[in-house]
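Predict the 3D structure for this chain.
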Amino acid sequence: MIYFNVAEVCKTRQIERPFTFLVKAGFSAHVANDILNSNSRSIRLNHIQKLCEILYCEPNDLFAYKPNDTNKLQETHPLNKLLPKQSDFDWSQTMKTIPLEQIKEIAELLKKSKI
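Done. Predicted structure below.
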């Protein structure tokens, strides 16, 4: 089953209130709720484009794939690229405990990588 992964993208982007973020970006409350809770069966292409623009991502980042027990895919199937990758890494907590000098080094690395 393919489902929306927008809540996880928001979490990764450190967006504390994803629903409010989406509504402020122009999504209706109903659509924002459906997207964040993976309730919608369809999504408009202009919504995908808008999500990619505001979340600075690509369409593949917005979706995840959960295989069902009855229909296993081969390991080489392209849908497997959408399998969610579990990450319990908490950036905000890490940034609170890293020494200031290391934060400056990280900032320099980011500047050099032209992000």
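The first strand starts at residue 2 and ends at 4.
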